[in-house]
Target: RNF41 ligase
Amino acid sequence: MGYDIERFVGYVNEGLLCSICRDVLEDPLQAPCEHAFCTACIHGWLVHHSNCPEDRQVIDVSLLRPLYRYMKNDLNRLQLHCRNREYGCEMVCSLESIDRHERECEYSQIPCSNAGCTVQVERRNLDGHLAVCEFRSRECPNGCGYTILSAEDTQHNCVAELRTELELLRSEMICRVEEAKHEMESRLDSQRRHMVQKESILQNEIEELKSQMSRMMSDVRSLMAAERQHRQELEQAELEKREL
Model:
């Protein structure tokens, strides 16, 4: 939808009106046939049609182009009233700067920033409303540190709130201790399994060393027996030599 033509000061050229909504062009696009439309209007039209609403020539979204520069300049120079005119704003500015003004206009209706409040007030009156809003929050004057809403003043009990907070902290602490306990048990189990595995490996290595030692001792005994036999044979040969 375009800008309501009733908001404009002075004459508005027919070529600056949307061919669909007949209001002043907003975010304009132009078809090859040179008819201009608001972007929202022509996109909505082409969902159900495939031609220009003015001359019925075939058009497609891909054929739409920005407005000619001279038309864009003429459009931006148009003067119009702020949309908050009915609330008291008397500002008249160019179409090019109207959005910037209306974002900051003191007469704009804006929602209250307090959660739960549905009131809308003029921007210039927001601070006054926030000071008396029944949904405003403040810190407990008794020093418990709890944030309360004005509507909860009569129901607020420092002791009860602190007790609730303490219970929440206790529950959170218990949960954290349990988590730490489970984590430590998991680590200990992992280390225990690792130690058992290492012990099994070492035990196997020890058994292998024992087996090797046993084989070596057997070989040593065999060598010593062979040496004794060889010595005896030498002694026998020496005796025979002497007899001869």
Summary: The mean pLDDT is 87. The helical segments are 39-48, 69-77, 95-104, 126-132, 158-243.
